[in-house]
Amino acid sequence: ELKVEQNPLFLSMQEGKNYTIYCNYSTTSDRLYWYRQDPGKSLESLFVLLSNGAVKQEGRLMASLDTKARLSTLHITAAVHDLSATYFCAVDINAGGTSYGKLTFGQGTILTVHP
Amino acid sequence: DTAVSQTPKYLVTQMGNDKSIKCEQNLGHDTMYWYKQDSKKFLKIMFSYNNKELIINETVPNRFSPKSPDKAHLNLHINSLELGDSAVYFCASSQRFGSSSGDLEQFFGPGTRLTVL
Known about the structure:
The complex is a heterodimer. By secondary structure, chain A is mainly β. Chain A is built from no helices and eleven strands. In chain B, 0% of the residues lie in helices and 54% in strands. In chain B, a hairpin with a 2-residue loop joins strand 7 and strand 8. Chains A and B meet through strand 4, strand 5, strand 9 and strand 10 of A and strand 5, strand 9 and strand 10 of B.
């Protein structure tokens, strides 16, 4: 059974600081997604990572994927208050290269950015 | 223009009742999903339909029955509601089911908060 683990689960940061959220998974996969969820809201897609070594950046967030280490990172640069949210990684099990969209989510990382 | 919509947004009901949640997507996707998010924010897939065909059916009590009248709609019917069914239920959709290349980015609806008293 695929396990997806994020750490840390809680992250309190000061504005302007940098930090990284880690997402480890237990089974071979080359499809990983990052989502953001604001309190009481839906999930917003941030990044789609589809191959080993994939790196994507949007504003102050950068995501990467290392399929050999089964690890993805979400790096936050110079955090601002607006980034406060819960961040989820999700891994897609693909059998023989074919994906069926069965996402397994990590526990989520609750990020709070303080002034 | 709402891409994935769900109704109702809130649902409060008594134990033992039967209720339905409706989902519609206007993205032209052919795959739709139901997820459950519990009180600890943990998200777990329940069902997936592709072109009205059930594809993913996780270990979910058979009191939960999805129905897809067409590929733009996926409804969730729950019989004999229990306290433990209280959660937020998200519908999602994607395209390229079964694709060996490209992404299956899933777009989520606003969620339905179900409270069973």
